[in-house]
Amino acid sequence: MPKPKQWQCTVCGYKCEGEAPPKQCPPCGAEASRFVPFR
Fold it and tell me: Is the pLDDT of residue 1 over 70?
């Protein structure tokens, strides 16, 4: 089973897991487009 993707907000550094980044960063409110995949 593949591992969920991990995403990081380029504005505040918030990290989360999921198939896609959240629509809005919980801590700073940045849009999903500001998230990048990371390992």
Answer: no
